[in-house]
Amino acid sequence: MNEDRFAHCLPTLRDLGLLPGTELAVFVVGSTVRGWDHGASDLDLVVVCAERFQDERLERVTVPLSPGEVDVIGFTREGRRWEVKYWLDDQVDQVLDKVSRDSFDHDRTAGARLIPTEEILLGRLAACHPLSGPDWVRRRLRQIEESAFQTYVLTDLLAMADTRAETAMGQLAAGDLPSAVLSARDAFGCAVDALLVGYGEYPNPPKWRARRFQEAKPEPLTFEEYWEIETMRGYDPADPAQWVEQVVDLCKDIAMEVEIT
Q1: Which of 211, 215, 225, 234 lies closest to 253 in space, CA to CA?
Q2: What residues make up the domain containing 81?
Q3: What whole-number distance in Å separates Cα of residue 13 and Cα of residue 258?
Q4: What is the pLDDT of residue 109?
Q5: Which run of H or E residues covers position 44?
């Protein structure tokens, strides 16, 4: 990754008065870091602070932490949309505590332990580009690796894939073919996401699933096999049941290949 792509980020934030001056780390996240961005892509940054940054321009996103909000600001600079989130270091500790090994050992039930805002934070850290505070980033990456975060995400995705697959078969038995097709497709998306998490590719919006698949190159499924289902290329409108059953069986095969530790 060419670091010059992000050389303007810190000066821009300073010019706009959007750095507290006592931040512990600043890093770029999202598609821009991966080199997947396009003309309409946002530039997403995270600023980690020891104390809350006070600025009347900031908006707040509710999180189940203490304090119960993450501050955020969006603005346009030279024709590009920027979004900056301000996390407290203590909030990051709290998120990691939710997915600690001790927490997993006490309760292995599948379910949403993290809200999307929290899960996205940890998932994006794995592929961030530090602008400052590289030691903070490295320490947090070690903590994520040692935690049960990957296990939690895998457990939830596999549970969702299984539920959607069962729903698809139930709808198929009831003769609701359109709904069965959509449920099978959803099940496949969850199963593939679980497979990719095992290769370190955490879920992003579905629009990036193909790119994540190409990066991970998972052995149990070729890109061509994945793409045939994702694009429904083999779907026959005259026999939707055959496609639904094929996809549900494939979801089960994928689940067998995913190792949960």
Answers
A1: 225
A2: 3-147
A3: 42
A4: 67
A5: strand 43-49
CB atoms within 10 A of CB 186: 19
Residue 108 has pLDDT above 90, yes or no: no
Q: What are 44's strand-pairing partners?
A: 29, 83
d(CA 49, CA 86): 7
Could you tell me which residues come within 8 angstroms of residue 25 by beta carbon, excluding any fewer than 6 positions away? Answer: 46, 47, 48, 130, 132, 133, 134, 136, 137
Residue with more model confidence, 104 or 255: 255
**CATH code assigned at 94:** 3.30.460.10
45-87: pLDDT as tens digits: 999 999 999 999 999 999 999 999 999 999 999 889 999 999 9
Cα angle value 141/193/114 (rounded, 5°) = 55
Do 73 and 83 touch, CB atoms closer than 8 A? yes
Number of domains forming the structure of the chain: 2
Closest CA to 25 of 110, 81, 95, 85: 85
